[in-house]
């Protein structure tokens, strides 16, 4: 795999942000993806009471979804031709999240050919880490350009 050139790289990042925004699941989790640079993605979102479990804090699905997405897009920022698939993901939940802003920050760790490894962490409004996770992601057979939400000019 050859890394995208600087001009194509920015178009790829914006197209991935568009792809994220177009995913139907994000109708349940209001959030915004920001690809800062190759291998680094942030998702800004609000935990709301509708995301709570019975004991009054965010349910684990919120943690997993945001950690997986941040790590995934950190990895897919390095892959310009194919959609990645999550093949495994480990979570460590360290503190409960209450209503308020949270940032999921994903970073690529290694791999660029067939399998990529990336991690992510959730940071609450006080700057405290609430969770972290590490995932493995595999190149699929699905061309990014074939996905309607991937509005790339690259």
TrEMBL record:
Residues 56-130 form the Thioesterase domain. SUPFAM superfamilies: Thioesterase/thiol ester dehydrase-isomerase (SSF54637). InterPro entries: HotDog_dom_sf, Thioestr_dom. One of its GO terms (molecular function) is thiolester hydrolase activity. This is Uncharacterized protein (TIGR00369 family). Signal peptide: none annotated. It holds the Pfam family 4HBT.
